[in-house]
């Protein structure tokens, strides 16, 4: 894995929503730089185990898996406790778990709103409230919330997602202020469109919502917002992540970093 490198040897990280897509890319980047990683997310049990073993084999670190449901505060508490029990410490928390549905606000089911806000925002609160005491005791910690360009700007048909991601940035700023003197930082990364499994499903949903083809969604809806006209690559996110979790990132705190080809500059 190319790009920025930093020595995370012996550190322990938990990454929610890390069995595929952005979360898995972030977990692999941390492991490639020496961190032991706790994976979390959905998927086929056999495939998840293959992924876990491959990280251990490829990078020579410890990798574990906890299938905590991000809708369940008790399971989230157990995820953090399991990470500390497994690795004896918790240095890095990456809040990445997320879901998305696309629909006009008057057609969005209340239960869908509740699930999107719970997984994208409320789960970040639960992981953070349990991780911070561990980090305070150690005198150091790094929290990175994966928000979205939609945490900075809005798009139609995404009311719950946009609201939740704006909330993630507010939570990030507040936590950063609270932990600033404890050697802990809290920041947010705001990606534009990355061609993940989540985005693939958005393409189909958006095509239906707007009554256009999937090709038109990619060209005229998604990438029209990104001046580069290209999807964001995983490496563009992992480079920033490694800076934020490193000692060099100690003064980066309470910020939301856009990685979206200039989308929010317009």
Automatic annotation (TrEMBL):
GO molecular function list: 3-hydroxybutyrate dehydrogenase activity
Entry EC number(s): 1.1.1.30
Coiled coil: none
Highest taxon, organism lineage: Bacteria
Keyword set, alphabetical order: Oxidoreductase
Pfam families linked to this entry: adh_short
Entry similarity comment: Belongs to the short-chain dehydrogenases/reductases (SDR) family.
UniProt-recorded name of the protein: 3-hydroxybutyrate dehydrogenase
């Amino acid at each position: 894995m190319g790009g920025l490198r930093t020595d995370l040897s012996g550190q322990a990280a938990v990454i929610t929503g890390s069995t595929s897509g952005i979360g898995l890319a972030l977990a692999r980047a941390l492991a490639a730089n020496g961190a032991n990683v706790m994976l979390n997310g959905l998927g086929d049990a056999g495939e998840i185990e293959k992924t876990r073993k491959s990280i251990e084999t490829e990078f020579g670190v410890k990798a574990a898996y906890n299938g905590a449901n991000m809708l369940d505060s008790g399971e989230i508490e157990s995820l953090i406790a399991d990470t500390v029990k497994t690795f004896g410490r918790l240095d890095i928390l990456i809040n990445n778990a997320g879901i998305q549905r696309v629909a006009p606000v008057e057609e969005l089911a209340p239960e869908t709103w509740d699930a999107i806000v719970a997984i994208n925002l409320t789960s970040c609160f639960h992981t953070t409230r349990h991780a911070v005491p561990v980090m305070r005791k150690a005198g150091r910690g790094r929290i990175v919330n994966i928000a979205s360009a939609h945490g900075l700007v809005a798009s139609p048909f995404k009311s719950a997602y946009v609201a939740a991601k704006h909330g993630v940035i507010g939570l990030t700023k507040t936590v950063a202020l609270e932990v600033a003197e404890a050697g802990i930082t809290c920041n947010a990364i705001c990606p534009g469109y990355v061609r993940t499994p989540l985005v693939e499903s958005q393409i189909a949903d958006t095509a239906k919502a707007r009554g256009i083809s999937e090709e038109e969604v990619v060209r005229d809806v998604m990438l029209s917002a990104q001046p580069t006209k290209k999807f964001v690559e995983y490496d563009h996110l992992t480079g920033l992540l490694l800076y934020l979790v490193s000692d060099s990132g100690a003064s980066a705190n309470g910020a939301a970093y856009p990685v979206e080809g200039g989308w929010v500059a317009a």
